[in-house]
Design goal:
Elements (H helix, E strand, L loop, with lengths): L1 E9 L4 H9 L10 H10 L1 E4 L2 E8 L6 H11 E9 L8 E2 H8 L7
Antiparallel strand pairs: 1-3, 1-4, 2-3, 2-5
Length: about 110
């Protein structure tokens, strides 16, 4: 396993769908990396306009290959990955809170 610092730009028009899949179990149920994707998005911070940064653990020989092919490439672009020693926290507003507060879909109580 390898830890990565990841920076990417989000695709604004796809954020509602991304948020729904993050909270409805669609992504979490994905094997083998669904839980790590959801947890990573809950850790992600908005570090610049339309840009998020997070730390993620990956078991792929190519950084986030499976995660990008199955999830991230639908919602994020311009990936930059750097190998790091462990999870780190970035400064900024929580991306997940941003998704939640900007969701156009009504959430059930």
């Amino acid at each position: 396993m390898v830890f990565y610092s990841v920076k990417a730009k989000y695709i604004e028009e796809n954020l509602d769908e991304f948020y729904q899949k993050l909270i409805d179990g669609t992504i979490q149920d994905q094997k083998p990396d669904g839980n790590e994707i959801v947890d990573s998005m809950k850790r992600a911070k908005i570090t610049a306009p339309n840009t998020i940064q997070w730390a993620e653990m990956c078991f792929c020989p190519t950084p986030l290959k499976h995660e990008q092919e199955t999830v991230y490439d639908h919602y994020l672009t311009n990936f930059e990955t750097t190998v790091i020693d462990d999870y780190v926290e970035f400064d900024g507003d929580l991306f997940f809170t941003f998704l939640e507060s900007n969701s156009k879909k009504t959430q059930l109580p």
